[in-house]
Write a structure and sequence with these properties.
Protein name: CsbD-like
Number of strands: 0
Family: Belongs to the UPF0337 (CsbD) family.
Order of helices and strands: HH
Strand content: under 5%
Number of domains: 1
Oligomer: single chain
Largest sheet: none
Radius of gyration: 14 Å
Organism: Ruegeria marina
Low-confidence stretches: none
Shape: rod-shaped
Structural class: mainly alpha
Helix content: over 70%
InterPro entries: CsbD, YjbJ_sf
Length: 57
Amino acid sequence: MDKDQVIGSAKVVKGKIKVAVGKAVGDAKLEAEGKAEKVEGKVQNAVGGIKDTIRDA
């Protein structure tokens, strides 16, 4: 497992938390930041998966 996968997964979780808190308190900016962080984490996780695949080949 590549370190990018671990960091990406952590960003996805952090983003989900921000979205939930943003919705709960009515903070649209926090909610948007959370959504952006989730996307960033998913991309980083995918990059880590590609690196892992290349390394194994």
